[in-house]
Amino acid sequence: MVFRQRKGKSKLTLQCPPELLAQLKAHREMQDAEREKVGDRWRDHDLVFATKLGTPIERTEDWKLWKTILKQAGVRDVRVHDARHTAATLLIEQGVNIRVVQQVLGHTRVTTTERYTHVSTPLMRDAGERLASALWGNS
Predict the structure, then answer these.
(1) Total domain count, the chain
(2) Rounded to two decimals, what is the model's pTM?
């Protein structure tokens, strides 16, 4: 596992949805129980997700788990990184300003964020309806 600093020099602060926060707290409680169970064998790296001994999860194991999760969820095979593109697109679909999406993703330049977002069918449909309304007064 490779530990590295963020590409930029600034710290990234995110707003955590209450549902996710509850899941993270539950995960932390399970991790605390694991820490107590293994005692002195625990190696603290201050990680949110770690092995049962507190050490970093190996890339290959993380990849296998990701593939298992995708299969169980019945979704197509994608990279973990693709989830960032999905998040960016979903935020744009929800009407979140692109500058806010830029901050959420931790991008220095908005042009990077623009590459992460994809035009979805609902957005295309909305654009078509707005054009029809402008041209023919349809609503």
Answers:
(1) 1
(2) 0.70
